[in-house]
């Protein structure tokens, strides 16, 4: 694996190998007082975030540190990006400094793919083979989120193939939804998208899933439900339906959560808008897998760095 840009790059074997490595790394660190493996000693990992993040940026930094890589964080506001430096110049500059891996989040869909192309073509000049990881590009993809969600579903359900997973809410603006639909379908799940018609993208009928607008009707038959964040920052034309209408039709209230089978986990990629997307009692309840997702995010990102920088393990 040279870069991780899209879950479409992963077939079932490659995705399962990453999830298995994540499980093994979690086991290797379990109960250790010092959570440090020597695996990536001497490697340099740079996070370059042009959008805000808590979970993805911090967990990649922890993942690198726990594997003894040197990790550096670059944010748009604190770098020469704020003076107008382009994405290409910034990336090639970091590559010339010896970055083995650049993890990028960018508001433009396709930014990670462009970056990977520049890195591959610039390798002779920069002298470094720099891998790119897509940490979220516009409304396109967020592959490591889908991998950590799959790790959490495996943990909670014992497997993914044949399970029915509901993904609920603002699909239109969600890179998490797109990556999850692709990855879960690749791993053999049946995926149901539940959303208001105004928050579905054009072409969703080509995605490997079923679409519904009726959350109450779908919940009793789901093995797990994944609530999405409403991406108000990407709704330049205003919020439709209104926040109240959204909560009434698509929020996971306590009453609604009771329609799920008893052992069905509730996932949310975070950050959560409590009260609109998910009731606080559900987010903090026994079915909630939200903090397990965050924990698995560190191990999955360790696995991604491992496969990119050390090669897939035997
Ligand atoms: N789920 C997710 O990507 O969260 P952050 O924006 O905090 O990284």
UniProtKB/TrEMBL annotation:
Subunit structure, interactors included: Heterododecamer (2C3:3R2) of six catalytic PyrB chains organized as two trimers (C3), and six regulatory PyrI chains organized as three dimers (R2).
EC number: 2.1.3.2
Name of the protein in its database record: Aspartate carbamoyltransferase
InterPro entries: Asp/Orn_carbamoyltranf_P-bd, Asp/Orn_carbamoylTrfase, Asp/Orn_carbamoylTrfase_sf, Asp_carbamoyltransf, Asp_carbamoyltransf_Asp/Orn-bd
Reaction catalyzed: carbamoyl phosphate + L-aspartate = N-carbamoyl-L-aspartate + phosphate + H(+)
A Pfam family this chain is assigned to: OTCace_N
Gene: pyrB
Binding site for carbamoyl phosphate: 55-56, 105, 142, 145, 270-271
Top-level division of the source organism's lineage: Bacteria
Purpose: Catalyzes the condensation of carbamoyl phosphate and aspartate to form carbamoyl aspartate and inorganic phosphate, the committed step in the de novo pyrimidine nucleotide biosynthesis pathway.
Molecular function terms, GO-annotated: amino acid binding; aspartate carbamoyltransferase activity
Domain Aspartate/ornithine carbamoyltransferase Asp/Orn-binding residues, every copy: 162-308
SUPFAM superfamilies assigned to the protein according to its UniProt record, in alphabetical order: Aspartate/ornithine carbamoyltransferase
Domain Aspartate/ornithine carbamoyltransferase carbamoyl-P binding positions: 2-155
């Amino acid at each position: 694996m040279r870069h991780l840009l899209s879950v479409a790059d992963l077939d079932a074997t490659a995705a399962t190998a990453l999830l298995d490595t994540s499980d093994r790394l979690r086991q290797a660190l379990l109960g250790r007082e010092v959570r440090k493996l020597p695996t990536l000693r001497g490697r340099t990992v740079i996070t370059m975030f042009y959008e805000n993040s808590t979970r993805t940026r911090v967990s990649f930094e922890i993942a690198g540190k726990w594997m003894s890589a040197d990790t550096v964080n670059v944010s748009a506001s604190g770098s020469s990006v704020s003076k107008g430096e382009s994405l290409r110049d910034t990336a090639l500059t970091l590559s010339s400094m010896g970055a083995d891996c650049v993890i990028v989040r960018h508001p433009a869909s396709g930014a990670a793919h462009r970056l990977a192309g520049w890195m591959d073509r610039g390798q002779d000049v920069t002298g470094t083979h720099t891998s790119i990881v897509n940490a979220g590009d516009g409304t396109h993809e967020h592959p490591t989120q889908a991998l950590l969600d799959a790790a959490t579903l495996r943990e909670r359900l014992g497997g993914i193939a044949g399970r029915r997973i509901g993904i609920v809410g603002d699909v239109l603006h969600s890179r998490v939804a797109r990556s999850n639909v692709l990855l879960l379908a690749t791993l053999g799940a049946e995926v149901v998208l539940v959303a208001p018609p105004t928050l579905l993208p054009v072409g969703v009928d080509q995605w490997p899933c079923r679409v519904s607008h009726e959350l109450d009707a779908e919940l009793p038959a789901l093995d797990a439900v994944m609530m999405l964040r409403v991406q108000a920052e990407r709704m330049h034309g205003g919020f439709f339906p209104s926040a109240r209408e959204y909560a009434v039709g698509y929020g996971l209230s306590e009453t609604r959560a009771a329609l799920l089978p008893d052992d069905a986990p509730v996932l949310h990629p975070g950050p959560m808008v409590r009260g609109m997307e998910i009731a606080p009692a559900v987010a903090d309840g026994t079915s909630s897998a939200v903090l397990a997702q965050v924990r698995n995010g560190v191990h999955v990102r360790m696995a991604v760095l491992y496969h990119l920088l050390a090669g897939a393990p035997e």
